[in-house]
Amino acid sequence: MKESNTYTVPLRRKREGKTNYRKRLRMLLSNKLRLVVRRSLNNISAQIIEYRQNGDRVVACAHSMELKKFGWKTDGGNTPSAYLVGLLLGKKAKEKGIKEAILDIGLNKSIKGSRIYALLKGALDSGLNVPCSQDILPSNERTRGMHIMNYASLIMKDNENYNKKMSNYIRNKVNPVEFDKYFNEIRKKIVGE
């Protein structure tokens, strides 16, 4: 490192690896609402945020823990739950008159078909307009949990392995082999059909 008398300390959130200020500035200059997606291992959350000079304001938000109100009993960090959170957020946004936003994934890596894009697909399906490529969104089979059903039916013959890998579903009295019925039931409750 070059030695000099002056050294500018980077902003705290940049030092901690929490904020990419160049990316944030580009989004803020667009003067559009941001669809902010944040994920953890067991949950995913989404907020529609409006920029204000004295601080950002959350206009609408949804979290995977809210799915329990609709009867969701399984993991809140998987692809189907991310889709449902996006659907719920889109419904809340529509009720508040929000029609469009831009996606803000923060420092998360952009991976085709990931949970972040499953949430985006749910928001798009609810009527929210977010510019994106259709190629990056996960397939309908993936968002509806068909991969869970296929895997459960594949390992069903080995009872010990099945009980070990599907323990979360079994404990919560959800049949992983019929996951699509469970998913569609919750989806209908969120949409209000």
Can you characterise this structure?
- There is one protein chain.
- With 193 residues, the protein is an alpha+beta fold.
- The chain has a domain at 12-139: Nucleotidyltransferase, domain 5, CATH 3.30.420.100.
- Helices cover 41% and strands 12% of the residues.
- The chain contains nine helices and four strands; from the N terminus they run H-H-E-E-E-H-E-H-H-H-H-H-H.
- The chain has helices spanning 12-15, 21-29, 79-95, 115-125, 140-143, 146-155, 159-165, 167-171, 179-191, and strands spanning 34-39, 44-50, 57-63, 102-104.
- A four-stranded mixed beta sheet has the order 3-2-1-4.
- Helix 3 packs parallel to helix 4 and helix 3 packs parallel to helix 9 (179-191).
- The longest helix has 17 residues, at 79-95.
- 27% of the residues are buried.
- The model has no long low-confidence stretch (mean pLDDT 92).
Write out key terms for the chains shown.
193 residues; alpha+beta; Nucleotidyltransferase, domain 5; 4-stranded mixed beta sheet; 9 helices; 4 strands
